[in-house]
Design a protein that fits this description.
By secondary structure, the chain is of the alpha+beta class. It contains six helices and eight strands. A hairpin with a 2-residue loop joins β5 and β6.
Length: about 280
């Protein structure tokens, strides 16, 4: 037996191998870090700057966004254009309505003025004829002549002209209208004014006369009242300024649209002596 066998050992018991290896690894890492730091020297460490990269919008998404913005802008422009068109249409409609109302007002005013002018002219015509008849009656001064005139007037409705050809046709047309109404501006078929009746009678034989009495009084050859033939146009007033016309039907009688009181009548020349005559046929 050894002389040290009975002496207790002072060595620490062995540690577990795995723990020993772990500690050795940690210690080695620490020593390595210290060694690296020592080798780097006393230089100060620079601050670390971290850069964050923003996500990039792909080209497809950018195009879609741009298209959407363009479409929105187009819609806004279309709405604005439509609003402007609607406003313009409303303004035009209002102006047209106002213009139409003004045109109607002017037309009515013109119509009233024309009617008043015709009425005034008719009154002047009647007054002029009345003056002429009064003057002629005063110059004749014969009651016998008046009686003869009345007798001739009463028999006028039974008179039939002995005219022939175109003159006969003109006279027949005029006599067929006896009894029709007198209307200023009337041209038939059931109402007439003086020149309207004369114009229509000659148109029945394809002769176109002017519309008004002033022009009809110079439409043919001037003839003497002592040399009248059936179909001659009689006029009252001056040639070119006549205010009344009629048709001589022969036998000292005429047919004419006299006035609103008598209408179309056949009367002797003495009933309303004319101022002159023209021959067209």
């Amino acid at each position: 037996m050894s002389h040290t066998a009975h002496i207790p050992s002072h060595r620490k018991p062995r540690r577990n191998a795995s723990k020993t290896a772990l500690r050795a690894g940690v210690a080695g890492g620490v020593l390595s870090t210290i060694a690296v730091a020592g080798a780097a020297g006393p230089a100060q460490a620079e601050p670390v700057t971290q850069t964050i990269e923003m996500p990039t919008i792909t080209s497809g998404l950018s195009t879609a966004v741009a298209a959407s913005a363009q479409a929105t802008q187009q819609v806004a422009q279309d709405l604005q254009t439509q609003a402007q068109e609607d406003a313009a249409a409303a303004t035009a409609a209002k102006a047209a309505k106002k213009a139409k109302a003004e045109a109607v007002r002017k037309a009515e005013a013109k119509k009233k003025a024309e009617a008043a002018a015709k009425a005034k002219a008719e009154a002047a015509e009647r007054a002029s004829r009345s003056t002429v008849r009064t003057t002629l009656s005063a110059t004749s001064g014969s009651s016998t002549g008046t009686a003869a005139s009345t007798s001739s007037s009463s028999s006028s409705s039974s008179f039939s002209s002995n005219a022939t050809g175109s003159a006969a046709a003109v006279i027949a047309f005029a006599q067929a209208q006896v009894g029709d109404a007198y209307v200023p501006g009337g041209t038939g078929p059931n109402s007439w004014d003086c020149s309207g009746l004369v114009q229509a009678a000659f148109r029945s034989v394809n002769i176109d006369l002017p519309r008004v009495s002033q022009s009809q009084s110079t439409a043919g050859t001037q003839v003497s009242l002592s040399n009248l033939q059936p179909g001659d146009i009689l006029y009252w007033g001056g040639a070119g300024s006549a205010y009344h016309v009629g048709i001589y039907v022969g036998n000292g009688q005429f047919v004419g649209a006299q006035n609103s009181s008598t209408g179309v009548v056949q009367r002797p020349l003495s009933y309303d002596p004319p101022s002159g005559a023209v021959r067209v046929l």
